[in-house]
Every structure is written in structure tokens, then in C-alpha cells.
Amino acid sequence: MATDSQITNEKYDSDSYPFQRESYELIGICMEVHRVLGRGLLEIVYKDAIEIELLNHEIPFEREKKYEVEYKGHKLKHHFFADFVVFDKIILEVKAQKSIVGEHFSWVLNYLAISGRPLGLIVNFGEKSLMTKRLIL
């Protein structure tokens, strides 16, 4: 009979759930920001607080990382900015809305495809408790 730890290890292996340690660390930072600031503020305020926490924890990141979109060998005029790229692996998308909706998932999946990053986290500060969603490309 399998033990609980064996079941957990099989269910959450690093292939199916990459960058677990990094994800948990980021979610912990976001939980701390939500605990201190609460809900109801603008996204930019939460981003500023997350930036302070990332600096305090000495976590490598880029804020508002610009990605250009190519079409048949041509760079398009329009581009997008990822809220944060953390550990050079994870796109962190910050929201402060009533809920995370399908459009947010589509955006992050597109960001992952264009950026070549393997993992995206959506964090929403607009609810009573911090809500997080993890997306793997």
C-alpha cells in the first residue's frame, strides 16, 4: 500500500508541476502583501509591494518585461508587458478584481507561448483571500 508521501510525490512531481519551490515562495510573498494591504487597492499598489518583497528576499526579477510579437518573420507594432518575470522562469500576473476570469487565463497562456517561459502564476488581490492560479505551458 502506498503511503501519503508517495502519493503526494507522484501527484506533484517536478515534470507535472515545475518550479514548485519557486512558486510557493512567490505565493507566500503575495500572501504577505495581501495580509498587510488587504483588498480593494489598485493593481499598481500591489505590484509596488511585491517588488519590495522580491528585493527584500533577493529574488531575481524583471518588472514590466517587454515582449515583442512576431508574425511570419516580422515584429508587430504592438507588444505586451508581463507584470513580473521571476527567477527568469515564471510570469507573475497581478490582478485586483472581483475574480479571476477566463480572459486572464488566455492572456497568461499567450504570454507564456510568446515569452517561452514554462510557468505562469495569476494572483488576484481583489478577493477576501488571495486567489492564485498556476498555468503550465
Structural descriptors:
single chain, 137 residues, alpha+beta, Lambda Exonuclease, Chain A, five-stranded mixed sheet, 4 helices, 31% strand, disordered N terminus
Mind explaining what this structure looks like?
- By secondary structure, this protein is of the alpha+beta class.
- The protein has one domain (19-136): Alpha-Beta Complex (Lambda Exonuclease, Chain A), CATH 3.90.320.
- 39% of the residues lie in helices and 31% in strands.
- It is built from four helices and five strands; from the N terminus they run αααβββαββ.
- The chain has helices at residues 4-11, 20-37, 43-56, 102-115, and strands at 61-71, 74-86, 90-95, 119-124, 131-136.
- It has a five-stranded mixed sheet with strand order 1-2-3-4-5, sandwiched between helices.
- β1 and β2 (74-86) form a beta hairpin.
- α2 packs across α3.
- The protein is globular and about 45 Å long.
- The model is unreliable at 1-10 (pLDDT under 50).
